[in-house]
């Protein structure tokens, strides 16, 4: 909805016929469009109640948040998939495999997994888009009342056009952007709630344009005219009406509404683990190129020196020009599996589960409000386990945002200092009863200098709807002092003071902004006709504009005293205006309010002209208590090595007091904290917003160095943009940052941080909707980071490194086989086995690692210091990856050497040796996952060992098919004791690499904890393990010459 200050409405003379009116409007439209293109893109002309004309100019009201359509889904999704380097790489490999001359395996070995992975990703995208479609469909088909050709009709919201008149009833949702034409209120007021848009639950006042004042409701559906307004933009103005009825003309519809244009897909955030995976992928690719080059050269040398001498090779004497490229390209295809094709889809799957674990966590439900935690971003859970800096708002984040009026200073008299509650102060109540002019003016400002909307419950009790908790606290406090705000009827306020009704007419409202830090109202006393300016705001926004000669030292001392107690302070003032002065100012103010260019700046400048020479009445002090568990949560997270910065708009003294009470810093002997240095790299500092602005502009490098040393900082009087700048500064220092807030002024900070957390608080849901994660209370941040973040990090790094490990081991075996097969690039494994290995055999067991817990949740909370190694990235870095790389190389050597020497004799089939090697890899995977698993559940055991069993079942079935290329192989192998001894030998080498202790051989035969059940003493385990090792080695030695299959 819009107000008259946003739009210019020109009535069309009623003497025109409908056709004449249409022609006139069309001519004006063409002229307006010419002017529009001539000088700017800032204007739109809306022709009221002319359905035929506007349909030709603007879109209908159908909204669409869909990313795809039926026609563009396949090409658009494929384009997005192939925009990633890894997918481009695998597509290139798959295309090269279509060249039969160079491919060592069937193209299905790459095309199969590639298509499967693309299908999974596309299915997920399609499902998400379908849900968006259902949401759009529900909104588009909502029934609304619209005037069509002078008749009020019930139509679907999607059929509304620009210029249509829309009728709304109480509690209806506004279907598009409207300019109010009329309401059931005689003064054209509409009270609106914006919670569906920005999460703010308070009522806002909107007024119909002055041009529409006095129009009878029965004539509204016949109104004609032209609205001149800006083109659609992202400045959101969508509301839900709460009167009996209201009507407005649609000016922006569909995706051109301010809400539609403000929607957008947030920029994807790259986690530290994802960044490391990208680096390692690049390193593996370089390594792969080196290997391919070396083997390609060696293969061409062997071909020219040895292969042409062998009769069975049958190389031609002269080949085509590209002959030298055949062997290198063949090795490129053979080594392409070094980069795991399934890593992305696996990570996407487990990260989605991590997000669901957060959603399902019953211990993170706020019992007071019923609000549960929610993960909006499903891709960054592991970053929670690497947080180094938390930047937090104060009000509503650390505090409860339940404002309670505690103390005040009126005309130099302090109230509430003795009893701790000004509303129980006998002196104050006595001054009210005696009609003290200073006190009455003070509580009058408290009661009416606000945007509070009084309503009545069914029982007749007065309830207040306020845009801020501070305003509600002041109005309630005034009511306790017998100055009761009873009613707001249009521009007239009714105050009940000791049973007497007092009326004020609100002439203008000078709204609060973060730059001005104050708000004012101009009212007219209906009893004596005096025009009065009432103001309230921060001390630095009120006291400097005091009347010349007024002593303000007492008020300054009061502000400082209350701030030391951690109370929120506001200064109240007023000023009587001359009628001529007001009339002249009002004209300029209305002109500024109707400006289409630089409107906010012009309004602020005009407000400055009247907000001066103020008579300071006093200071209010409001208590905002800390949330339960905040000090404990901060202390726990500080033990985990996380540093805290507080970014608040409050004054320095208040912020420091809150910091002291919630364990941000420890108090100095003098009770003040400016800079505290307990030890090197343990610095705490306090800085004001004005100083921060100078520092960020002129001393950025020095401030950056200070930031890198600081564990704690308190930034006071900062603006939303400064909050975002501080977050950006810490990110440039390569720290992992988490920003947490609860209000709209925290959104920029939340979106700038690596991780944004919003609190679903009393200031609404705007921060929670913009954040990656939303929680009900600050104390849940402990569990979010230490439990969910740490578990997600540990599980993700294992899955990532394991994915590379299982791809490298099979690739190394292929390379070793090439070395004994003439460096020809021949594949040991068939295409079906490779495809099953990548997609199924080695993927299912590791996916259940999402259930693994190395430590109990209770232990993690009690010992937060264990987060240190996650923050330092000690579980996933080039060194740890080198360990997995070495493990894969060692295991590949073991599997290949034993397979070749045990089963690769003259009468063996290559498929038999390949199946032995593949079986060894599958057994190794099962034991590696078992070794790396810290806690077991039935699902994990079924996934690991059930997957191993399914490997044999599947291959036994395939071995019954004559055309499968593996006919009878698995049956023959399973009947040979040497095959099972070979499998056991593979795993014994795995144990020797993991730890030289022979007891581990026995340990791996059983899940953890089983040993204690079956073997009583360590000596018994040692004896049995050594006996089994000796037995295996003896059998292998006795069969060293004929351990293979005997014909």
From TrEMBL:
<dbReference type="InterPro" id="IPR036412">
    <property type="entry name" value="HAD-like_sf"/>
</dbReference>
<dbReference type="InterPro" id="IPR023299">
    <property type="entry name" value="ATPase_P-typ_cyto_dom_N"/>
</dbReference>
<dbReference type="GO" id="GO:0046872">
    <property type="term" value="F:metal ion binding"/>
</dbReference>
<keyword id="KW-0460">Magnesium</keyword>
<dbReference type="GO" id="GO:0005886">
    <property type="term" value="C:plasma membrane"/>
</dbReference>
<dbReference type="GO" id="GO:0005524">
    <property type="term" value="F:ATP binding"/>
</dbReference>
<feature type="domain" description="P-type ATPase N-terminal">
    <location>
        <begin position="46"/>
        <end position="111"/>
    </location>
</feature>
<keyword id="KW-1133">Transmembrane helix</keyword>
<keyword id="KW-0479">Metal-binding</keyword>
<dbReference type="InterPro" id="IPR032630">
    <property type="entry name" value="P_typ_ATPase_c"/>
</dbReference>
<dbReference type="InterPro" id="IPR008250">
    <property type="entry name" value="ATPase_P-typ_transduc_dom_A_sf"/>
</dbReference>
<dbReference type="Pfam" id="PF16212">
    <property type="entry name" value="PhoLip_ATPase_C"/>
</dbReference>
<keyword id="KW-0812">Transmembrane</keyword>
<keyword id="KW-0472">Membrane</keyword>
<feature type="transmembrane region" description="Helical">
    <location>
        <begin position="937"/>
        <end position="958"/>
    </location>
</feature>
<dbReference type="Pfam" id="PF13246">
    <property type="entry name" value="Cation_ATPase"/>
</dbReference>
<feature type="domain" description="P-type ATPase C-terminal">
    <location>
        <begin position="768"/>
        <end position="986"/>
    </location>
</feature>
<dbReference type="InterPro" id="IPR032631">
    <property type="entry name" value="P-type_ATPase_N"/>
</dbReference>
<feature type="transmembrane region" description="Helical">
    <location>
        <begin position="280"/>
        <end position="302"/>
    </location>
</feature>
<protein>
    <recommendedName>
        <fullName>Phospholipid-transporting ATPase</fullName>
    </recommendedName>
</protein>
<dbReference type="GO" id="GO:0016887">
    <property type="term" value="F:ATP hydrolysis activity"/>
</dbReference>
<dbReference type="InterPro" id="IPR023298">
    <property type="entry name" value="ATPase_P-typ_TM_dom_sf"/>
</dbReference>
<dbReference type="InterPro" id="IPR001757">
    <property type="entry name" value="P_typ_ATPase"/>
</dbReference>
<feature type="transmembrane region" description="Helical">
    <location>
        <begin position="1024"/>
        <end position="1043"/>
    </location>
</feature>
<dbReference type="GO" id="GO:0140326">
    <property type="term" value="F:ATPase-coupled intramembrane lipid transporter activity"/>
</dbReference>
<dbReference type="Pfam" id="PF08282">
    <property type="entry name" value="Hydrolase_3"/>
</dbReference>
<keyword id="KW-1278">Translocase</keyword>
<feature type="transmembrane region" description="Helical">
    <location>
        <begin position="881"/>
        <end position="901"/>
    </location>
</feature>
<feature type="domain" description="P-type ATPase A">
    <location>
        <begin position="141"/>
        <end position="202"/>
    </location>
</feature>
<dbReference type="InterPro" id="IPR018303">
    <property type="entry name" value="ATPase_P-typ_P_site"/>
</dbReference>
<dbReference type="InterPro" id="IPR044492">
    <property type="entry name" value="P_typ_ATPase_HD_dom"/>
</dbReference>
<dbReference type="Pfam" id="PF16209">
    <property type="entry name" value="PhoLip_ATPase_N"/>
</dbReference>
<dbReference type="GO" id="GO:0045332">
    <property type="term" value="P:phospholipid translocation"/>
</dbReference>
<dbReference type="Pfam" id="PF00122">
    <property type="entry name" value="E1-E2_ATPase"/>
</dbReference>
<dbReference type="InterPro" id="IPR059000">
    <property type="entry name" value="ATPase_P-type_domA"/>
</dbReference>
<dbReference type="InterPro" id="IPR023214">
    <property type="entry name" value="HAD_sf"/>
</dbReference>
<feature type="transmembrane region" description="Helical">
    <location>
        <begin position="808"/>
        <end position="829"/>
    </location>
</feature>
């Amino acid at each position: 909805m819009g107000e008259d200050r946003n739009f210019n409405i020109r009535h069309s003379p009623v003497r025109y016929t409908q056709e004449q009116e249409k022609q006139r409007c069309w001519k004006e439209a063409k002229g307006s469009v010419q002017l529009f293109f001539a000088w700017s893109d800032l204007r739109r002309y809306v022709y009221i109640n002319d359905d035929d004309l506007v349909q030709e100019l603007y879109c209908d009201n159908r909204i669409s948040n869909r990313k795809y359509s039926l026609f563009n889904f396949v090409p658009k999704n494929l384009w997005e998939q192939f925009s990633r380097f890894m997918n481009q790489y695998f597509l290139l490999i798959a295309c090269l495999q279509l060249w039969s001359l160079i491919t060592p395996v069937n193209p299905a070995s790459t095309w199969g997994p590639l298509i499967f992975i693309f299908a999974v990703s596309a299915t997920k995208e399609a499902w998400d888009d379908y849900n968006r479609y259902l949401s759009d469909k529900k909104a588009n088909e909502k029934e609304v009342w619209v005037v069509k050709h002078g008749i009020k009709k019930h139509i679907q919201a999607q059929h509304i056009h620009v210029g249509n008149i829309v009728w709304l009833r109480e509690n209806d949702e506004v279907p598009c952007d409207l300019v109010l034409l009329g309401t059931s209120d005689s003064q054209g007021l509409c009270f609106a709630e914006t919670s569906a848009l920005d999460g703010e639950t308070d009522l806002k006042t909107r007024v119909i344009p002055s041009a529409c004042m006095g129009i009878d409701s029965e004539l509204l559906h016949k109104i004609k005219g032209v609205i001149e307004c800006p083109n659609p933009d992202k400045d959101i103005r969508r509301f839900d009406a709460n009167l009996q009825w209201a009507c407005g003309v649609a000016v922006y519809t569909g995706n051109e509404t301010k809400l539609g244009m403000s929607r957008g897909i947030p920029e994807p955030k790259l986690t530290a683990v994802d960044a490391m995976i990208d680096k390692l992928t690049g390193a593996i690719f370089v390594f792969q190129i080196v290997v391919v080059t070396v083997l390609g050269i060696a293969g061409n040398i062997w071909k020219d020196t040895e292969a042409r001498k062998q009769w069975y090779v049958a190389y031609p004497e002269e080949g085509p020009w590209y002959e030298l490229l055949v062997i290198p390209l063949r090795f490129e295809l053979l080594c392409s599996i070094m980069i795991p094709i399934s890593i992305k889809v696996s990570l996407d799957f487990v990260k989605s589960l991590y997000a669901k674990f957060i959603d399902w966590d019953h211990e993170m439900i706020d019992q007071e409000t019923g609000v549960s935690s929610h993960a909006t971003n499903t891709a960054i859970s592991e970053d929670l386990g690497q947080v180094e800096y938390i930047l937090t708002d104060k009000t509503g984040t650390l505090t409860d945002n339940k404002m309670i009026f505690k103390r005040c200073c009126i005309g130099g008299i302090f109230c509430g200092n003795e009893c701790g509650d000004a509303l129980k102060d006998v002196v104050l109540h006595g001054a009210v009863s005696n009609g003290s002019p200073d006190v009455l003016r003070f509580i009058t400002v408290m009661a009416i200098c606000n945007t509070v909307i009084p309503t009545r419950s069914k029982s007749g009790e007065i309830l207040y709807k306020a845009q801020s908790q501070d305003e509600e606290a002041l109005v309630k406090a005034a009511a306790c002092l017998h100055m009761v705000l009873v009613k707001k009827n249009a521009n007239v306020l009714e105050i009940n003071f000791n049973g007497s009704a007092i009326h004020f007419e609100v002439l203008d409202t000078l709204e609060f902004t973060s730059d001005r830090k104050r708000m004012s109202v101009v009212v007219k006393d209906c009893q004596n006709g005096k025009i009065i300016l009432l103001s309230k705001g921060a001390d630095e926004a009120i006291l400097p504009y005091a009347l010349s000669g007024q002593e303000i030292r007492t008020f300054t001392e009061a502000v400082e005293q209350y701030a030391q107690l951690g109370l929120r302070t506001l200064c109240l003032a007023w000023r009587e205006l001359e009628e001529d002065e007001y009339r002249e100012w009002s004209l300029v103010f209305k002109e500024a309010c109707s400006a289409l260019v630089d409107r906010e700046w012009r309004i602020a400048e005009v407000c400055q002209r009247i907000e001066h020479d103020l008579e300071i009445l006093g200071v209010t002090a409001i208590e905002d208590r800390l949330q339960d568990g905040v000090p404990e949560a901060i202390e726990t997270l500080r033990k985990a090595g996380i540093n805290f910065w507080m970014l608040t708009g409050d004054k320095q003294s208040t912020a420091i007091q809150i910091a002291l009470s919630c364990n941000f810093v420890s108090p100095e002997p003098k009770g003040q904290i400016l800079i505290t240095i307990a030890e090197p790299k343990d610095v705490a500092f306090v800085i004001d917003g004005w100083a921060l602005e100078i520092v960020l502009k002129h001393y950025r490098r020095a401030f950056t160095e200070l930031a890198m040393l600081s564990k704690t900082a308190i930034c006071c009087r900062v603006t939303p943009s400064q909050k975002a700048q501080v977050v950006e500064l810490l990110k440039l220092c390569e720290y992992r940052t988490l920003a947490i807030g609860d209000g709209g002024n925290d959104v920029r900070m939340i979106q700038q941080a690596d991780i944004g957390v919003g609190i679903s608080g009393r200031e609404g849901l705007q921060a929670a909707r913009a954040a990656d994660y939303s929680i009900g209370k600050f104390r849940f941040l402990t569990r979010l980071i230490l439990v969910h973040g740490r578990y997600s990090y540990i599980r993700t790094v294992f899955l990532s490194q394991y994915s590379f490990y299982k791809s490298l081991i099979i690739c190394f075996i292929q390379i070793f086989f090439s070395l004994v097969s003439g460096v020809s690039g021949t594949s040991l494994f068939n295409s079906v086995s490779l495809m099953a290995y990548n997609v199924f055999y080695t993927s299912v067991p590791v996916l259940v690692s999402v259930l693994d817990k190395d430590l109990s949740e209770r232990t993690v909370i009690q010992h937060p210091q264990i987060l240190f190694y996650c923050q330092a990235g000690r579980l996933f870095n080039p060194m740890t990856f080198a360990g997995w790389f070495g493990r894969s190389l060692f295991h590949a050597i073991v599997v290949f050497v034993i397979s070749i020497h045990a089963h690769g004799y003259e009468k063996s089939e290559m498929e038999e040796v390949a199946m032995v090697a593949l079986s060894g890899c599958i057994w190794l995977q099962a034991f590696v996952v078992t070794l790396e698993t810290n806690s077991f559940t039935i699902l994990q055991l079924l996934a690991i060992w059930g997957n191993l069993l399914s490997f044999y079942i599947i291959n036994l079935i395939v071995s019954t098919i004559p055309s499968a290329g593996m006919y009878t192989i698995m049956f023959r192998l399973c009947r040979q004791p040497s095959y099972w001894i070979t499998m056991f030998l593979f795993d014994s080498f795995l144990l020797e690499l993991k730890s030289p202790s022979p007891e581990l051989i026995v340990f791996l035969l059983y899940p953890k904890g089983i040993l204690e059940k079956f073997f009583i003493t360590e000596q018994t385990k040692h004896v049995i393990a050594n006996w089994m090792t000796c037995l295996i080695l003896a059998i292998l030695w006795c069969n060293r010459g004929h351990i293979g299959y005997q014909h």
